C-alpha cells in the first residue's frame, strides 16, 4: 500500500504542478491577447482621429468654396449692368457670296449666330431690368 500511496501521491503532485504550469501559460497567453487587443484599439482610435481630421478639412474647404461662389454672386448682382460690360456678338465667318447662299453648313452657322445674338440681347435686357425690380 505504501508503494501505491507513494505512486498516487507522486501522480497527484505531477498533475498539480502541470496544472499550475498550464494556468501560468494560460495567464500569459491571456495577457498577450489583451495587449494585442489594446494595441488594435489604439490603432483604430488613431485611424478614426485621422478620418475625423480629414472630414473636417474637407468640410472647411467646401465652406470656403461656397463662400467664394456666394461672394461672386453677390458682387455680380450688386453691379449695375453698365459696369458688367456689353456682350459682344460672336464674330461671323466670312464666306464668299455664292458659297454662303448655297451651303447648308453656312445656313446653320447663320441660324446659330442669329440665335446667339437674340440670346445676348435678351440677357442684356434682363440684366437691365433686374436691378430696378429688386429695389
Describe this protein's structure.
- The termini are far apart.
- This protein has 2 domains: 1-78; 83-135, no CATH class.
- It has 135 residues and is mainly alpha-helical.
- The protein contains 4 helices and no strands.
The fraction of residues assigned to DSSP E strands is: under 5%
Distance between the termini: 118 Å
How large is the radius of gyration? 43 Å
Strand tally is 0
Show the helix and strand layout.
Layout (H helix, E strand, L loop, with lengths): L1 H77 L2 H4 L12 H6 L1 H31 L1
What can be said about this structure in brief?
The protein is an all-alpha fold.
Key attributes of the depicted protein:
single chain, 135 residues, mainly alpha, 2 domains, 87% helix
